[in-house]
Amino acid sequence: MPQPAGVTIRPGTDADTDAYIRLIGDAWSEYPNCILDVDGELPELRALATHFQKANGALWVAEDAGGPLGMVATRPLNDDEAWEIGRMYVAKAARGTGLAHTLLDGAERHAVAHGARRMVLWTDTRFEAAHRFYEKRGYVRAGSIRILDDISKSLEFRYAKPATGLAVDMLDAAAAASAERRLSDILVACVASGGSVSYLRPLSMEVARAFWRGVSADVATGTKVLLGAWCDGQLAGTVQLVLAQQPNAPHRAEVAKLLVDPAFRRRGIARALMQRVEQVARTIGRRLLVLDTASDGADRLYRDLGWQEVGSIPGYALNPDGRPEATTVFWKATA
């Protein structure tokens, strides 16, 4: 693994027991009623390297001259080509240095090199800083909360993401809420790069977060479908399906907010999102789709995908710099 200056990252051994206990105990002590009982509940810490070796996984420790600074492990789950990230802890003094990213980068690369197509992890519901870190790394909430019968009365969120290649997934309400920060970054970046997506420059993070909170609420109520696209483990794009609610329009939906992080463009992400959103619409019985887009060249993608142009409306919206621009309206039948 590449590592910050002065820090060594090496495979963990069973002789590192004191380091594991110190790192985990210090982290848990930052939260109320989070109690580390090694021999009663986590005896594997006494031989943690052997524990992961038996699971065909791997374990690393980060240290400097002053002692242990962090740890991380990964192992295969033999479920949908998934690997689990576990025992991810960084000492408070080393947070904000990039060490956590370095450790996770190495664990994810190891997993992918050994066949991982999907990464999963569990994190205590109290560990909010960890949630923000994993969400920044492209993980989203997936599945139910896990209840542990332990002395700390722990509840854990499950997080997951595609590990490699280009993948498009549908986000449920929990996943949508956990993706709000990353999706806000994408929206702000798209507006800053000139994307005509309803907002003017500069778009503040607060306004972007408020928008995505509204989208998450709509997903929860079933009025929107939200898709996310991952590129090599990073959440890089999104699109929405706005479901018509009128009694006479159960067959219709609008495709909206097709966004791709400018750093990930020209990798087929927008096309993959559009193809998947059509599949989803067909699956849920929405046979007629509509969309509108700025008449600035972005409309070429829709024509290539077989969308039919209705017409162009001059000056329909303002571009990110506040100048009027034309908008083109398209439709497509999914069945």
Characterise this structure.
By secondary structure, the protein is α+β, with helices and mostly antiparallel strands. The chain has 2 domains: 8-162, 3-Layer(aba) Sandwich (Aminopeptidase); 166-333, Aminopeptidase (3-Layer(aba) Sandwich), CATH 3.40.630. Helices cover 31% and strands 33% of the residues. The chain has 10 helices and 15 strands. It has helices at 17-28, 38-41, 48-54, 99-113, 128-136, 173-178, 180-192, 205-221, 269-283, 299-304, and strands at residues 8-11, 58-64, 67-76, 82-90, 118-124, 140-141, 146-147, 155-162, 166-171, 224-231, 234-243, 252-260, 288-294, 308-318, 324-333. Helix 4 links the parallel strand 4 (82-90) and strand 5 (118-124). It is elongated. The termini are far apart. The model has no long low-confidence stretch (mean pLDDT 95).
